[in-house]
Fold these 3 entries.
Entry 1:
Amino acid sequence: MKKIILLLTSVWVLQLATAQTALPVPGNLQATYKKGTRDISGRPGKNYWQNYADYKVDVNFNPSTRLITGTAVINYSNNSPDTLKEILFKLYPNLYKKGSSRLMNIDDADAGEGMKIEKILVAGDEVPANKYRIDATNMSVRTKPLMPKQSLSFTITYSYTLNRESHIRTGEIEDGAYFIAYYFPRIAVYDDIDGWNRNPYLGTQEFYNDFCDFTTSITVPAEYVVWATGDLKNSKDIFKEKYQQRIEQAEREDGFINIIDSTERLERITRSETSNTWIFEAKHVTDAVFALSNHYMWQSSSLVVDKATGRRTRVDAVFNPKHKDYFWVVGDARKTVESMSYRFPKWPYPYSHETVFDGLDQMEYPMMVNDNPLEDRSESIELTDHEIFHTMFPFYMGINETKYGWMDEGWATIGEWLISPMIDTTIVDEYGVAGYERAAGNEIDLPITTLTTQQYGTSMFINSYPKPAMGYLFVKDMLGDELFFKALHNYIRNWNGKHPMPYDFFYSMNDGCGKNLNWFWKRWFFDDGVPDLAISKVITKGKQRQIVVESKGTKPVPVDVTINYADGSAEKLHRSIAVWEKEPKTIVLTVTNNKKIKTVNLGSTYVPDVNKSDNVYEMKQQ
């Protein structure tokens, strides 16, 4: 009994005792198991908690001045076991504030005063200026202690000028078109790992937000139409009858419809002659954004995303008609939502709509995508499905993108790789593969699990996008689709609507498939090393040919061999990463026939190799 008790006190020792390989667990993450907020099964622990806020935001946007003025009423619930003596807010527009630290360049004309806080009320009482402190994108407000299981209300009046030239995920797109994100002060995440998320927004790393409810009232001039996170609650009061009928038609039918055609932008779309207040409501989402235009057209469709309930999702493309590639986007977006619901990751699309908006970036939000136009058809498909795939990761799954970029961008990358050829079978999407091959083994090639906050440039790219995507793909190949989806769905069931950390993913996958994959997780996600296979020799024994493949590197990758015969035919052989579990230096692939072999080639699209010079074996005359 003493031995068992000792093992149970140390999750990393328990892993070692119950499996061939233990994953190294940092001390601050070990603490979550001791507190019972996480469980080594991969599930949330019995003491898991997360905080919550209800936002009611009234915002006014003046396109002629780009001035945003607003009032945010926030009711914040402290579900943690801790007493909070301050509340930390995120003021993301302060990326553009003069003097703010940033890792992305901005135009001098966009550097201004940032978000001005006009007034803060806490429980109805005004907070003196000396009780709150703004440091770039963080604002700390000292309050009376907020006890566990207690709530506190904030009313914040604010204003700022939207950026015009430096479009970093948000800003003016062109005269009469705007994508507006981060438009209100929001309370930072307080979690069981770090307490307050004090990481500043520097423009490179992305976001970490709590699941909250949002009711946003957006007032703009009458000639503008607004699209946003959430469901439009006063659609019938705003749109003229024919446009309202088209929206309703799009929401119930599979076909495509122009809700607003390019020629109709010359007429008034809305009932009002002066201004409209658009009211959107979204429940249990991590963020809320909106976009508007006075000249974009709007194409739409919908589809059943959950056959068990018949629930439908509306899919929109909203764009400047001069961008011809965007006429394909609504169809590509619809196919993406369909593929996600039924093919990968085979999970019903969680939102009531998805709107792809013609912008100046490549950025995802709950129910909204800000995508620049692309002339190349394949690139347009790849961008569309990549950004929409983020619906699952980070939004549905509540990922901390700031620290763990690989837990969301890696999934969007494998989603792009797999879904793009579902939309267009001619596409071979190699996004990021060559970049990893060039960097592998160099100083900038850090372990995937290196915190994203500690990376920049190429390191951040390869560790967020291609390397983790390859890891997911290799596991899918090894397990086979049935077992892989069983594991992945276990992870999704465990953590949707919550905040998983890396080990919640690893352990949920292990538990879901009934196999201990720590040997692969460790070597691919934690360890140094490079992927490097070679054909060392081909042995002929009568009709039998033995192809000997050597692993010169330490990263386990699939083995794909193409045998080219003298008669012009070819044969392909494949082995999953499972062949490297016990760390053999070589494996043997055998074929038996009378054909003369001309060459043997090693490699395939998603299998990186730092030295391809030894991947082709030319047979001597037979």
Note: The chain is about 25% helix and 30% strand.
Entry 2:
Amino acid sequence: MVYGQISQTDLDYTYDKDPEAEAVVIFDRGESQFIEEENTLELYFTREKRVKILDKEGAKYSEVTIPYYIGNSRQREKIYNIKATSYIMEKGKLIKKELQEDDVYEEQLNSNWRVKKFIVPGAKEGAIVEYSYELSSPYLFNLQDWEFQSKIPTLKSEYIVKMVPFYEYVYIAQGIKKFSTHSEKLERNVTRNLGTLEYNNVILTFGMDDVPAFRDESFITAASDYIQKIDFQLSKINHLNGVKEDVMTTWPELGKTLMKNKYYGKYIKDARKESKKILATMELSAKSELEQIESITEHVKKNYSWDGLYRRYASEKAKNVIKVKKGNVAELNLLLTGMLQQAGIDANPVMISTRANGKIVEDYPFESFFNYNIVLVKTGANSFMIDATEPLLPYNKIPPRCMNGNGLVVSKDEVGWVNLVDNLDSEEKIEIGISVNAEDEILDYDIKNVMMGYDAFAVKQNYSDKEDKLVGYLNNKGLQEIEEIRTANYKASDKPYFLAIKGSSDLEVAGDKIIIKPFLDFPIAKNKLTQKSRSYPIDFVYKSATNFNTTINIPAGYEVSTLPEAYRLDNELASINIEYVKEGDDVRATGKYHFKKVIYQPHEYGRIKSYMDTIVEKFNAQLVFNKV
């Protein structure tokens, strides 16, 4: 297929295999090669993509984002020759609209990355949109990866890489049992030169046909961990003078390299030296080892602020971070490591990949997998992990963003792996009192909400203990009017977070009946597990239990209709309990659901999906009261 050559078949194309498809990729083709520039090599990448929009919702697939690496030097990647066109038949005439140069804009993602963005003009239901661009890169470690799968089906996806003998790469194919097309051949008809050496490219071709859409993104780490794709990592450099330089070594060798690095191991050493005066003021001698760990960690959390940047390395000296009391995640957690070590604590840095960054492939020792650091502490027979960036968490808890597979423990003697999952339960307890004012058709609520562990952290982090934000949160839970909100323990990370709410909402009346949801909209309202089956795990991040206890005062002149039957389930995967009883002039509804594992394997998917359906049905049931 050639850019700009649109057939009637393309214009008339419909896709029957997936009724939910909003659009379909007709083809997606990329090519990477090395180009000689002034006796050196640069990477050169081209891409062409064509999409058929099947319905009005599919127009969003005309929005294109192209990331490129700028680094911290004068060298940077460049994007050029962007073309984008839409085609549609209207009243028997082909309408064609082309992207204008002024329609392309740029955004800065962070200090190393920028993106170019544009929307293909004329994109709408029935249209075909296509675009192409070219990218040049001096960064030979950044050979483009390739994703064969996306949120919409793909008819044909192909990636060609023309390799040179000076740079060797390993590639990691994910989610692919067999390529539709896969070949490796020598480009014999073209001889190239670099310096005085002649060489031929080796052409690698990877192709996938009829790739289904990847839709179920609920309860996973990152979509990039599961879609069909191929990643490339530079493993060896063969210099022109004959010297061979290994880029991919071993985890122990990587650990040694990190500990020798000025902005990693040597930074920790400097942090130990610089923290002596700080530790001397903290009166640690009278405290137990565990109390010392808590005191030092809380000192860093309360006196230093995180700048929000994820980094593998420090970028400032330890003394400068101590002076300005602010730093990136590596600077703060490596500083904490040094302070703990100086106090005689067994502490080591742990290099990790956050959930959004994707999982580490432990068979391939590449530093580029990582984007974050935390601290592993050992005291007696116990060990736990620490992150200095989140003052709203207890000192011995890491943020949910860090709970992603295993982390690499780095020390001067050896490296090892530590599991990042926290198996302790978080919990939420919701107590609701409902008074019915049938005459004014109002429901008055008195609610006490107690949250513990990561459930408390999530609400604290999202709503910041601010009344206006909490009002919005409670409106979404079914309270239309909020009269009073009281909170407790927002900054006390070791205590449950407490909300007390007084509010009201309109009473639902249907003739001689009144209808009440006993748990309002606090329970899970929708099952996000929608596929029939799944080939990858369900990852809830952490274990959680939710408890409800509601008392409804039966209004004068009404009686409760038949109460729903009690339901009980308790097994190795989950427990679900709900019960309704009439006690004098009140109806009491109690319930609890608890998923007992953090991660469920694909063969458990059907059961967990069924339990979710049960929770949605049972905990969102309505009670009916009839007029006597």
Note: The chain has ten helices and 38 strands.
Entry 3:
Amino acid sequence: MERIKKFFLLLFLMVFTCLTVAPTVNFAVHGNEITAKNGVLDLRDINFEEHNYIEMSGEWGLYWNKFLKPEKVPDNPSTFVSFPHIWMGSEMNNETLPGEGHATYTLKIKVNEESLSTHKGLYVPLISNASKLWINGKLVSQIGEIGMSSKDERPTYNPQVITLDLDKPEIDLVLQVSNYSSRNGGIWGEFLFGNAEELRSMAEKRMLKEMFIIGGLTFFGFYHFVIYILRRKDRAALYFGILCLLIALRSLIVGEVILTDLLPNFSWEWHRKIEYWTISIAFPVFLLFLNAIFLNYIKKSILQMFFFISLLYSLFVLFTPAKVFSYTINFYQLIMTAMMLYVLFELTKAWKRNVPGVKVLLISTVIFTCTALNDVLYYNEWIHTGDFISVGLYIFIFAQSIVLAIKYASTFQKVETLSIRLGELNNTLEEKVQIRTSQLERSKNELKQLNQKLEILSNIDTLTNVPNRRSLNQNYEEVWEMNKDLLKPITVFMIDIDCFKLFNDTYGHQKGDEVLKLVAQSLKNRLDMVGGFFARYGGEEFFALLVGKSVEEAVDIAKDMNDVIHKLKIQHKTSTVTDTVTISIGIAHSTSANLVEKEQLISKADEALYHSKQIGRDSISLFYQNEIKHL
């Protein structure tokens, strides 16, 4: 059954491809049947009731780097080129033409008298980048503004059908073309001559085909945006939606250039930038989609490298004019081709591993790759097939929509299966509740132990690993209440690292954090030896508390702490004291004879610290018997 489904899916893709490409097929006489020779296209034997229109290929007269008006054109051109004619790399009189320049083309068309009974028309294809067209000396078309330099030229894209009012069987066509705005000038498509009504019908069919593709891509894009909004974890739908809209945008500006009809005054320069961006942005999004749908089959390092190149290229296009960035497209196309071959290699490996959905993806990717390569060859004038990347991607996108739909249907089936299993599990709910209750009891005990550990951690400063301000407040309150009735002396030390801001500015905050840790641990070790309490007060300030020590003992301990820091010999070349890290200490001592209130003791120690800083730092000051003394 599964094989039958895949067969019908692949059959549908083939039929859909034919139906999508069919509107691009015309009923023109082409190939080697009728071509212009020596600047003359002889159509006198053509029955336009059988052949709606013909391609005006063959030898056209060319006057390079000259603008000739009809009355100035010689009867017999000396130089002929094969039409359509793209300039860069083409040969003329053993000379290779550049992509920039201007030229005049001439062609004489001969029709029979019977052909004049119906209105004839002329289809003007994409011309790079500005043109003027005369028929029998009458100006019938002007696309942009031609010029002999980039300052004079105003480039425009606008394929169109012109209705001709002919009164004689010989038609003199004069076409002036200029390109000073991009890499490659010339005529990119076939001029068509035939019944005006049929030409308009052909142009409308091409336009409808483009609009059909644009409409479908836009629908797919917003549809998958909705899927992503409903299920944010599904990034494949997001990338797929973005890809659809980017290609829809590209379809507006290539082929029949529908954007020109919608916005006639839209900037040609931005038109070209968008054309290039839809390549440099859409292809990375395409790779993100593949990577998301098949769970990172593409190596991350290769993706990142390609994204970086694409970002640089997109910025290059943004900040340079078309005359510059259009010369770089071959470089990016080469990288894209290499990346696509790598993707096909990875998808082939996934096929061998029987990854679900990869077969349809691989086939549609091959179709898309072929159309992309076709466009690269077409725009480099190596083949003359036309622009098919939008069709190829449309097929790819439609196929992936089916794959995603199958994926979502499979997910829904899994949900239904889980719902059935949930119903079965509910039948044994009571037993599971008992088990769960027992588990919760164990979890409760574990949580209690964790809370005890958390209580300990909440009283520790995470940087220096000494007690923090919260622990200081609790400890100070307990010590004071415990000893106020026993009348034991209480000593408070306020300690500050000298010129610490200058240290951070000189050596950086990371080095400053290391110094805070070292100083804190060194002082704490000294206080632990005498049963004191040590904590971080805030920033580079620390707090110490002693109980039952005389004022002389307290001063000795302060001197010891100062010596401990001196012995560390931590370099501090921007200190205003000395070339190593030092500390200043303020002491406040309370006894039964010289009682200082609980709230004032820390304040007085802080005043003593301030006094130590004022007299030059790296010093000790004592508040005792209502006065501050420098020690």
Note: The mean pLDDT is 83.
